[in-house]
Amino acid sequence: MHALRRLGSMRGLFGARSYSSKIQTMQVGGPVGAPAHRLYFARNGSPVSPWHDIPLMANSSTNEYNMVIEIPRWTNAKLEINTLAPFNPITHDTKNGQLRYVANVFPYKGYIWNYGALPQTYEDPHEVDAHTQCVGDGDPIDVLEVGQSVCAEGSVHKVKVLGALALIDGEETDWKVLAIRSDDPQSQVINTVGDLEVHMPGLVAATVDWFTKYKVPDGKPPNTWAFDAKPKDDVSAH
């Protein structure tokens, strides 16, 4: 993933620091489902951006990344880091003035992973991805955290990258990074996409199926994939 490799060079600016225990969040405008819902981030009492101020690397020596959770597993509200708002709070995405929710596409319930983003990354809508031959979608790179816990909106976790899938959504590149929390009980035995198939059989296939179909209930065509929907391994993803 060109964007991840390119922005990965910024790791030297931040060093290997763990931010998960130092970040606080503050909800304003009501809970998820309220149109004005905002989740802001702070560190040591001062506001920070989850996109710009949290470092990409959690530990460069072990190749572990920071991940910001936007959407807890099994939920349906489409929450995302607002890249246009000051301090980039997590907000409830809208379309045509309506709050967005993903449908329960059989047999799935909401998002089937903890869904979030890699800070300090960007899929450039003005740059053609050399791997997919499509431009980026203008957002931070998405992460699908596959561990055992349901993570809270706005929580920050150290994760290990396992691989990545290249979704083509509306002729835009939308990489989906497969990762697992470093503190997950299975993280010691899951290091690659191959390990994921052994210890969580069917999850990669379910991921492809979910993203292919999730917009169909909204009247849109199925999404397509680069690389025949096969995941790139950890080495390629980095």
What topology emerges from the helices and strands here?
Layout: H1 2-8, H2 11-14, E1 23-28, E2 38-43, E3 46-48, E4 57-59, E5 64-71, E6 79-81, E7 90-92, E8 94-95, E9 98-99, E10 114-117, E11 135-136, E12 142-145, E13 156-169, E14 172-181, H3 193-199, H4 203-213, E15 224-225, E16 232-233, H5 234-237
Parallel strand pairs: 11-14, 12-14
Antiparallel strand pairs: 1-2, 2-3, 2-7, 4-5, 5-10, 5-13, 6-7, 8-9, 10-12, 13-14, 13-15, 13-16
Alpha carbon gyration radius: 17 Å
User: What share of the residues lie within helices?
Assistant: 10-25%
* Number of distinct beta strands: 16
Class inferred from helices and paired strands? alpha+beta
Give a written overview of the molecule.
A hairpin with a 2-residue loop joins β13 and β14. The protein has helices at 2-8, 11-14, 193-199, 203-213, 234-237, and strands at 23-28, 38-43, 46-48, 57-59, 64-71, 79-81, 90-92, 94-95, 98-99, 114-117, 135-136, 142-145, 156-169, 172-181, 224-225, 232-233. The strands form three sheets. Strands 1, 2, 3, 6 and 7 form a five-stranded antiparallel β-sheet that branches. It has a five-stranded mixed barrel with strand order 5-10-12-14-13. It has five helices and 16 strands. The protein is an alpha+beta fold and 238 residues long.
